[in-house]
UniProtKB/TrEMBL annotation:
It comes from Carpediemonas membranifera. This is LIS1 (LisH) motif. It holds the Pfam family LisH_WDR26. The keyword Repeat applies. It comes from the Eukaryota. The keyword tRNA-binding does not apply. Keywords: Repeat, WD repeat.
């Protein structure tokens, strides 16, 4: 077919030429090239030679002009498709080849019926994109109301539909998640608040590594059979890692802390016995040189990773077992069975009064932090608590079967919750349940989940059980893709070390097992 412009790249022209006239496609390609060519929206509209009969397309044009998306951004490539493609193959050729092999910064379409299916089937599981595609592919958002485009940044890629939104905002959402237009608008507004200028909001590339595309569309085994086993002094109850995932710290029932370097040729296994009470929570300091360890008897220790020397930071009542520790501000947040506390850099603690907003008994469980909020399991429900006010902000989960263990994704957007007779449920704070996994879980108990992230996106969730088996669940496939029997007795936790290509598990058999990740 004939193209509106002759200055398009050869690969785009080749892709578009494969679409026949008989398929009745109206396509407007508007292009600002690498030479810094700039045109106003009015000029482009005059040159388009396309008559718009659909009112929704007119609304898109108005929104685009209001935001001056065709201004100084010389890398902007927009593809506007009206109606209608007669086959998925035609849609695939037009969008994936023409857009993804070029800039892919802004895509507007009014293909109401099939845009969502196209994205889920073709774009997200794109198999091993070449480097040019990988570096250029931007966030994709299926927008329900075109008029909302006026509130978006020109750096946010959007695909317009009618009733559903498919969002892959970097660090927040995962391919395959459906949200509503109002929530998308709130999310975009929150993102704008953290930027210097609302005119230059960058959510970053989403699909930029072949491992993501490989596992999105298949049930390929994530964890390799290659393992390395280390032996602790007691039953392993808790673990933590540093930001680079080059350090692993495990606490056990004998009161011993075990430290090793999982990715090094010599792991340098070291251990220090703190007391006779079990270690129930561990967390690295802000400078990654200290470890804070909370004990079953309420004692909190500060351990140096240089020489494993330690000191008592503070002590709670003997019946106030420590159940969670997280870095917060310049110190730590610490949860005991009875309450929430802040421990400053100089030691001592300050109680944080939290009033539960439900009628259940008030009891803290697992703890996780993100920005200014702390997430805690309180009486089995996940609460997001504003530490500055000491009040719960929101009950994120309140189910008939309360959870006893929790994991938070690195971006803080997703929460995994599990417990006795309770399925593994993954929630997104913006709109609710992402997945609920019931199959292949041990019927009695599931323990200490962990998100395994790809390019900072929580694509997988791993969890251990009393049967000693690790289950790997795929957020995209929507079910268990792998079961790994590895511990004699309960597998008490799984910890992702994806930056060094590993996953760690620990259990009642006093074993710390490092599992490789298939690349």
């Amino acid at each position: 077919m004939d193209l509106p412009y002759a200055d398009l790249s050869e690969d785009v022209q080749k892709a578009m030429s494969s679409i026949s006239q008989e398929e009745y496609i109206r396509i407007l390609l508007q292009f600002l090239n690498d030479r810094g060519l700039t045109r106003s929206a009015e000029t482009l509209e005059q040159e388009s030679r396309v008559e718009y009969e659909d009112e929704s397309i007119q609304r898109i044009r108005v929104a685009v002009k209001q935001q001056n998306w065709f201004g100084s951004d010389d890398s902007l490539f927009s593809l506007l498709l009206q109606q209608n493609f007669q086959s998925p193959e035609a849609r695939t050729r037009a969008l994936t080849t023409a857009c993804l092999r070029h800039y892919g910064h802004l895509i507007l379409t009014d293909d109401r019926v099939s845009a969502l299916d196209f994205l889920k089937a073709r774009v997200l599981p794109l198999a091993k994109p070449p480097p040019a595609v990988a570096s250029a592919l931007a966030s994709l958002v299926l927008v329900a109301d075109e008029e909302r485009l006026g509130r978006m940044s020109r750096s946010l890629a959007v695909i317009g539909g009618e009733t559903e939104i498919l969002a892959t905002l970097s660090g927040c959402l995962t391919p395959g998640m459906l949200i509503g237009p109002a929530r998308l608008e709130r999310m975009a507004g929150q993102a704008l608040q953290h930027q210097v200028s609302s005119d230059h909001v960058h959510f970053g590339p989403i699909i930029n590594h072949s491992i993501l595309s490989d596992f999105c569309s298949t049930k390929k085994a994530l964890i390799s059979p290659q393992t390395t086993v280390f032996h602790a002094q007691g039953e392993c109850y808790c673990a933590c890692t540093n930001i680079e995932h080059t350090l692993l710290v495990v606490g056990d029932s004998s009161g011993t802390l075990t430290v090793l370097s999982p990715a090094a040729d010599d792991p340098g296994l070291r251990a220090v016995k703190l007391s006779h009470a079990a270690v129930q929570a561990v967390c690295l300091s802000h400078d990654q040189e200290q470890v804070l360890a909370g004990m079953h008897d309420g004692t909190v220790y500060d351990i140096s990773l240089v020489d494993l020397s330690f000191r008592v930071v503070t002590s709670f009542a003997s019946d106030a077992a420590v159940v969670g520790i997280q870095r917060y501000d310049k110190g730590f947040l610490l949860a005991t069975v009875g309450g929430l506390y802040y421990i400053g850099s100089t030691g001592g603690y300050e109680p944080i009064p939290v009033t539960p907003n439900h009628n259940d008994s008030f009891e803290f469980g697992a703890l996780a932090t993100c920005d200014t909020a702390v997430h805690a399991l309180v009486s089995g429900h996940v609460m997001q608590i504003d530490v500055r006010l000491g009040q719960p902000m929101e009950v994120i989960k309140a189910a008939e079967t309360a959870g006893t263990t929790m994991a938070l994704s690195s971006g803080g957007q997703r929460i995994a919750i599990a417990g006795p007779h309770c399925p593994l449920v993954v929630y997104d704070k913006s709109y609710g349940v992402v997945r609920s996994f019931t199959g292949h879980l041990h019927e009695r108990y599931v323990i200490h989940p962990s998100f395994i992230e790809v390019n900072d996106l929580p694509i997988y969730c791993a969890i251990g059980g009393e049967d000693g088996v690790i289950n790997i669940f795929s957020m995209t496939v929507g079910e268990s893709i792998q079961r790994i029997p590895c511990h004699a007795g309960s597998c008490n936790g799984v910890l992702s070390l994806e930056r060094v290509g590993m996953v760690a598990s620990y259990g009642d058999d006093k074993k710390i097992i490092l599992h490789g990740i298939n690349r």
